[in-house]
Amino acid sequence: MSWDEAIDTIAAEVKRIGEQYGPESRYVNYASGQSWGLHGGKNAARKLLALTGGYLNYRNDYSSGAGNVATPYTYGTNNSGSSFDSLLHSKYIILWGQNPSEMIFSTPYREYLMQAKKNGAKIIVIDPRYTDTAIAFADEWIPILPTTDNAMMDAMGYVIVTENLHDQAFLDQYCIGFDGNHLPKGVLKEESIKSYLLGEKDGVVKTPEWAEKICRVPAEKIREIAREYAKAKPAALIQGWAAQRQAYGEQFMRGGAQLACLTGNVGKLGGWAAGTGYWSRSDIVYPFSYDNPIKASIPCFLWTKAVEQGTEMTVEDGLQGTDKLSTNIKCIFNMAGNMLINQHSDINKTIKLLEDESKVEFIVVSDLFMTPSAKFADILLPGTTFFERYDIGVPWCFGDYVVFGDKTIDPLYECRDEYDVFAELAGKLGVKEKFTEGKTTLDLVRESVERTKKELDPNFPTFEEFRKMGVYHFKFDAPLVGFKEQIDDLQNHPFETPSGKIELFSKALWDMNRHDEIPAIAKYIPSWEGPEDPLNEKFPLQLISWHYKRRCHSTYDNQPWLEEVAKQEIWINPKDAEKRGISDGDRVQVMNDRGSLNIFVKVTPRIIPGVVGIPQGAWYTPDKAGLDQRGSINVLTSQRPTPLAKANPQLTNLVEVKKA
Amino acid sequence: MVQLGFYINQSLCTGCKACSVSCKDKNNLHVGINFRRVYSFEEGNFIQQPSSGIVQNVKAFYFSIACNHCAQPKCTQSCPVGAISKDKDNGVVTIDQEVCQGTQLCVKACPYGAPQYNKKVFKSDKCDFCIDLQEKGEEPVCVSTCPMRAIEYGPIRELRKKYGNVSQIKGMPSDSLTHPNIVITPHRDAKMIQ
Ligand code: SF4
Ligand code: SF4
Fold first, then answer.
1. A132 φ, ψ to 5°?
2. What is the C-alpha separation between A223 and A229, in angstroms, rounded?
């Protein structure tokens, strides 16, 4: 197909579907293959649709979806982090489900962690796997069963409170909900955190012995860590996001924040507020903008629901901006992303949905590779690498620098940058001038640089200087400490919560009146497909995934050198392997009621018994019978969302493993 | 002669294998051939207590190694056609690709697995310390790539002065075999039991 024909077809379909079903039928799928620049394909598609009637919005992401919604109920914002140089002042660091050795969580983070260790900080890693982070950084590894983190957190809280190690003054001054004297009006005293920990209402005292039976961390170990964390001031409890990609991930995020408040580690240099942990102080201006006339939005994880039953979705499903959608999704743009098939939960279910042409009528994909998602495109556009276009690179996920993305070669063969493709499409639909505003991508870079210098940072280099330097480092005199302003002067800098304080007890959550799944304080909630689910008689192993060091999500899974570096294989503990007659290097079949896959096995003591792990991101590779032969974990994951955020629970799975 | 050597701060190594991949890139090596290799080690057991908690004694580490440009290399002696030589100025051991006949005797002789046999060209080759880059004043690629800055290089006497004399860790062949020009700061779990 020629570019002309592709552009004509897309223009005609976008128009037809918009007219036939209304703009809410058009959707640009979540994607992260080309994000964080000035003008990614996702934004180009959105701008085109915005200029021609609009599109259905999504909110949130697949990375920290539960946390993004939960943490603001505690702190009023997700910016609960501090710059990582603050760790040089920490005496004790708990990395809870966080693994900066195997994934990038800000480029210089590891360096600061290394320095912190040199400075004498003790580092604890809590994780079902003995991660590469545990190898390089940890003084101690605490293995724990997935989905049970909050049981350990509750017990730590119990130890801290009953041994009088909590910071009562901090709790009194800054927080709502610690004890009966600090609850919102109309809420009974026994709803407080203290009362919950002491079991005053439910009769369950949250002792370490109680938690040990659930999470498998020995009671004495829980006591020891609780005491050390509470006594070593300042101490940083930093949460990864894996443990919030769980059935009740909201509790994990609020639970960590609760411990940080119990110990008064919020707003202090070398402490850490926990929660989602975003921070930012090195912004640039993004000149490529648009305004979508459609205000309706869905949680990004529920896009398959919006395809199937969009018109039936309600506020309960996280629908916002409208009471009711006028149509299901009929047209999808999937730009530089693999969420269409590979990275979304329950691949088998999604395939059925996409194969039904009466549902989604038109799919456009842009990518560099023939990914599993690209195979579902009606029109597949060959995109460009960042070597073939101008842009500004912004670090994932934090970092005090930006990179000049200079175009080093013209696009190869017939590949084209999405900006140019959508500009041409805009021409076909009569909105070219509005789309480009007369600018090329190089103009966008120039404008961003000039406006950043003028509006945000007078020290920012000029365009020519920046181009020559390649990288610009923002300079700061001192670390950024999350919530320092609020803690130093609450009167003039209240938290952005309804009460202006830290809401360990959230009245807003309480008023939702779904206390079993959406409690007002962070709690352990036994998880579906967790260790206490009766389903484990049939599927006795908990399955988790992790970001593999050899690829970025699913990007470069097709690289043989990287397969050599780190093979796609499932981790299983020798005890579990022996029971099943499985040896290292075997092919095994992993299954549950949603699907089944074949994969090589690594038998290793680096994972806790009862748990298996598959690195996420392998490309779904079905054989003739439709059985995945590569180990794409989402064959086994569930589309059931978390209760509050409607986020992805992709690390909550029960499976059985047997020799293939 | 100023003998060159590597320093590996193994205590920092996260096992990312960037050193190994950048070496492949520089030397254009296909899958299966690795002039720099990253080995992993893991051991340990789990015991479930009567109270149901799990205790463990797991130990694990990674170790990156290329060629140690040994003081008494086994490879040079093993080669029947004299393809392997040790430079008299810097002590770097190289395999002359013109001379190599692919007997693979060096592969068997080297206790460290450094020489790699290439089935496509019937020859063995290995780390040459990026001597071409060094001549231009640049670092070997593994050194410049390591995100943990866990690899250094230089005159071995200086490295030993700075970092000590450890040249053997748990699982490694005895350093008395070839007297490797490597200095290691071992990972906490990799130290030799004295
Ligand atoms: S490490 Fe092996 S190949 Fe290298 S010099 Fe020593 S014996 Fe020879
Ligand atoms: S690059 Fe550095 S940290 Fe990574 S494996 Fe090699 S030596 Fe270890």
1. -65, -25
2. 10
What's the pLDDT tens digit per position in A452-494? 999 999 999 999 999 999 999 999 999 999 999 999 999 999 9
d(CA A80, CA A74): 10
CA distance A137 to chain B (A): 8
pTM as predicted: 0.97
Distance CA A127, CA A146 (A): 8
Helix orientation angle between A41-51 and A418-428, rounded to the nearest 10 degrees? 10
Q: What is the pLDDT of residue B194?
A: 59
Atom of ligand 2 nearest to the CA of B149: 2
Neighbour tally for B56: CB within 10 Å = 17
Whether the upstream peptide bond of residue A397 has omega within 30° of 0, thus cis, is: yes
For residue A137, which of B115, B37, B15 has the smallest C-alpha distance? B15
Reading the block at residue A90, the tokens are: 């920490």
Any CB–CB contact under 8 A between A315 and chain B?
Answer: no
Per-residue tokens: A604: 């290793």
Q: For residue A182, what are its two tokens?
A: 């600090």
Rg of chain B, C-alpha, whole Å:
18
Length of chain B: 194
In single-letter form, the type of residue at position B76 comes to T
- Of A658, A659, A660, A634, nearest in space to A648 by CA: A634
Average pLDDT score over residue span B159-169: 97
Looking at every residue in chain A, the average pLDDT score rounds to 97
A125's tokens = 């890693």
Q: Which two tokens stand for residue A20?
A: 């036939």
- Give A209's contacts in chain B (Cβ within 8 Å): 51
Query: Which of A600, A533, A526, A629 has its CA nearest to residue A248?
Result: A526
Count of CB atoms situated within 10 Å of the CB of A428 = 16
Whether chain B has a CB inside 8 Å of the CB on A133: the answer is: yes
Ligand 2 pocket, CB under 6 A: B 13-19, 38, 62, 64, 145-146, 148, 150-151
Shortest Cα–Cα distance, B67 to chain A (Å): 19
B20 CB neighbours in chain A (<8 A) are 565
Long-range contact pairs involving A349-355 (C-beta distance under 8 Å, separation at least 24) = A349/A304, A349/A594, A349/A639, A350/A304, A353/A304, A353/A307, A353/A308
Rounded to whole angstroms, the Cα distance separating A152 from A167 reads 20
For residue B75, what are its two tokens?
A: 């490879």
Residue A78: enclosing H or E segment and its boundaries? none
Contact B167 CB / ligand 1 (< 6 Å): no
In one letter, which amino acid is A130?
Y
**Could you tell me if A452 and A460 are in contact, meaning their C-beta atoms sit under 8 angstroms apart?**
yes
